[in-house]
Design goal:
The chain is of the alpha+beta class. It has three domains: 11-75; 90-134; 152-183 and 206-292, no CATH class. It has helices at 11-22, 28-41, 46-53, 57-70, 72-75, 90-101, 113-120, 124-134, 152-164, 234-247, and strands spanning 170-186, 205-218, 224-229, 253-258, 288-292. It has a five-stranded mixed beta sheet with strand order 3-2-1-4-5. Helix 2 crosses helix 4 (57-70) and helix 7 packs across helix 8 (124-134). The radius of gyration is 37 Å and the shape is elongated. The model is unreliable at 269-305 (pLDDT under 50).
């Protein structure tokens, strides 16, 4: 054993060390450290300890000294080591914060970690740590300007009320549209995927015009009513609403939630329509609500606020 090293363990420490070496759930580094101390207490030489534990001489000496200083608890904790990366000076953090609060260079909309790292000559991870410490999130915005619609609050309460607490024995549909969807097709058909071969696809395609998708989501059960149409006008919207009326159960009041999209900006619905009369507003403000009578209801039209 190394000169100056004398290990004597109490029966309690021996039982604790033996429990660590036998515990399959214990960390391996704790197990071989405990084994070094147990072999040292049994007066086993350093070379034999090295052979049985597979550790170097300096490693054996290190944990013998650690046990003499801190006991069994010293074997279960590693001493803190200084970081290889030097700590940033306070002036660096102050400069990063000052730059973050200023406008980014050029036509950039906001600071990113990589952009700030290049401007401050530090790593991107250091920039993120500084931002996190100071509570800065330059990539996020909080909107504060409300709609100038005089009926905005009433519409907001109306729409949120339909989502949160819908009327009893009624159907709530959230309607939206996706216009100008490109109908694309590959110039040649590809081969299907099979074992040992990838599926094939040509790099080029041909256009077949555009289509407009109208969709209505049933808020209660998640079912969707959808239709593709060639154009994007109020006539197509009215046709889609007529489709909804034909598919909903008879005797149910239907509430339709939709935004003020251009097809709803017409002053009136088409003559003879039994579905909807759209709002005269043309702005894209928050969602508007409409109540659409079912086929069993007596009114022939309803307003969209």
């Amino acid at each position: 054993m190394r000169t100056g090293i004398s290990i004597t363990i109490t029966p309690a420490d021996r039982r604790r060390l033996q429990a660590i070496t036998r515990d399959r759930n214990a960390a391996q580094k704790h197990a071989w450290r405990a084994a070094i101390v147990l072999l040292s207490a049994d007066a086993i030489g350093t070379n034999e300890i090295m052979r049985q534990t597979g550790k170097s001489k300096t490693c054996v000496w290190r944990w013998q000294e650690r046990f003499m200083e801190d006991g069994v608890d010293g074997l279960l904790h590693d001493k803190t080591r200084p970081s290889r990366i030097p700590r940033l000076a306070p002036e660096v953090a102050e400069r990063v914060v000052a730059l973050t609060l200023a406008d980014p260079p050029g036509e950039t909309t906001h600071w990113t970690a990589d952009l700030m790292a290049r401007a401050s000559d530090i790593s991107a991870s250091a920039v993120r740590r500084i931002w996190r410490t100071h509570g800065l999130q330059p990539h996020r915005y909080r909107q504060f300007k409300l709609s100038n619609d005089p009926r905005f609050v009433a519409k907001l309460r109306d729409v949120v009320g339909l989502y949160v607490d819908p009327p009893a024995h009624a159907i709530v549909l959230s309607v939206d549209e996706k216009s100008q969807i490109q109908a694309l097709d590959r110039t040649q058909p590809g081969l299907p995927l099979k074992k040992g071969r990838l599926g094939t696809m040509t790099h080029d395609y041909k256009r077949h015009g555009t289509t407009t998708l109208f969709a209505a989501l049933n808020v209660l059960d998640g079912t969707v009513i959808g239709r593709n149409m060639q154009r994007h006008r109020h006539q197509e919207l009215i046709r889609f609403l007529n489709t909804i009326e034909a598919e909903v159960p008879v005797g149910k009041m239907v509430h339709v939630i939709l935004d003020n999209m251009p097809p709803t900006s017409i002053p009136k619905s088409a003559p003879g329509s039994s579905v909807i009369r759209a709002s005269s507003s043309t702005s894209r403000r928050p969602h508007a609500r409409g109540s659409m009578p079912s086929r069993a209801s007596s009114p022939s039209s309803a307003d969209v606020a």
